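Sequence only, no structure available. Ideas?
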Amino acid sequence: MCLQFFGRKTLFIGELPSEVSVGGMRVPSALVRGVVGSCVVAAASLVTSVVPESSWVASLPIASDLRATLPGRMTGLTLMVAGLGLMVWAWLSVGREVLAGVRHRLVPLAAWWSAPLLLMPPLFSRDAWSYAAQGALVSKGYDPYSVGPGVLSGHVVEAVDPMWMSTPAPYGPLPLAYGGLAARLTLDPYVLMLAHRALAVLGIVLIAWAVPRLATACRVDPTVATWLVVANPVLITHGLGAAHNDVLMLGLACSAFALALTGHWGTAAVLAGAAAAVKAPGGLVVIAIAAVMSPLAGRARLRLASLAIAGSVAVLTLVTIGELVGVGSGWLSALDVPGLVRSPLSIANLIGLGASGVLAWLGEDGAAQQALQIVRLLGILTALGLIAVLGLRSSIHNAARAVGIALLAVVLLGPTAHDWYFVWGLPFLAVARPGRKLTTALIGVSIILTVAAPLNSSLRGAVIPILVTTSLVLVVVGTLLGRLRTLQPQPQPKVIATAG
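Reply:
I predicted one. C-alpha cells follow.
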C-alpha cells in the first residue's frame, strides 16, 4: 500500500526558521539546545552515576572531588535535572512545528542529541553493571539462572547493586550470550557496559527503521510518530543513556510487526521469539502478527489458529536460542526477580501494599504478609485475561494499539514497574492513530519520566538529595507541562491510499 500526504509544508532540519550562529554557521536552535542539554547530562553523570572504583570516571580530578561530598553530589543532581529540562524543551520546540505540519529530519536530530551520552556512565540505573557481571558469569561457565554475580570477585562486580548480587538473571538468553562473548574478550566492567550500550544503539536503530513504516501502514503521519518515539528524550536517556536491554527487545518487536505488515509473517514470528529471548514481554507482538495473518476480528477459530502458529514459531525460536547458547530455559524461573522491588508505579503493588498496611494496622499480621502476594497474583491474572481478549478480538486496524495496551497492562498490573518500562508501549501507541488526548498523554508522561529520572533507587535513604531533587523536578516539570498547553496535536493530514 502506498500512501501520499497532501497539505503539508516541507522543511528540513537545516532550514529551521529559528537558528543561532555557531562558529559562523547558522544552526537550528532546537538542535543546539538539545545537544547542550545532552552535554550537561553527560557531565553530570560523571558525578551522579555509580561507577566501578577501577574505572577512569572514579579518578577524574573534578568529578571525583564532587562525588565525595554532599554539596558536590547535589551540584551534579542539579545539573542533571537542568540538562534533562533542556533536552525536553528542545524536543517540545521541534514537536510544536512537527504537529503544525512542518517536516524535519528527526533521526539525524536524535543522533546529535544522543551522541554526548555514548561513552558516559549509565544514567539513573545500575542495571548495565549487572549485565556486565552476568556476562562474566557466562564466560566463566556459571549458570546465570542459578547463581548471582556475588560468586565472582574483582573489578567486574564493583558497581553491581548489592540488591542483585545474589539473585539470578531475569533476562533471556540473547543478552546473556552476547555478554558472555564480550566477557571472553575483557573483564573490564566499563568496556562491558559500553558493549551492552551498543545493543541499545542497535535497538534504537531498529525502532527508527520500523516506526515510520508502521505509521505509514497505519495511516499515521510518520514524521509525528518518529518525533514521538525516536527523538523522544525518554528513549534517549532511559534507553541509550541507561543502556537498558529493553530497547533491544522493543526494536526487535517493532521490526517484527513491520515485517508482518509486508507479508513476511514467518520472519516476523522469528523476530518475536528473538524479542522474547531478550525480555519475555517482547513476545506479545505475536498479537499483531496474528492480526495480520487473520485480519478480521471476531473469527475466533481463525485467530486462534493464527496465534497458535505465530506463537509456536516464536516459542521455537526462543527455545532454540536458549539451547544454542547453552543456557536453556532456566531464565523462566527467574522472572520473579524484578518483583523484589516494590515499585509504586505498579497498580498491583500500590493496592497490595495498601491492603497489607491496613491489615497490619488491624493486627492481622499473617494476612498482611499474604495480601501483597495475593493482589500481585490477581494483577497478573487480570493482565493475562486482557491479553487474551486483545489477542482474539483485535483487528489489523487496531493491532498496534492492542500490543501497546497489552504491554502497558504487563507494566501496570505486573509485580513491579520501573519508569523505563513505560517505553515498551510508546512506539505501538504512537502509530495507533492517537487522538489529541492520547498524544498529549504520551507527551506529558514522557516529560515527567525524563525529568524525574534522577529520583531513582540510587538515592534511597538519602533524605536531603531526595528532597532537593524532588523540588527541582517539580519546578522543571511544572514549567515544561505549562509549555505543553501550547503544543496541541493537529488533525491527521488527508491520506490517499493507492495500491502499489
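DSSP finds 19 helices and four strands in the chain.
Hope that gets you unstuck.
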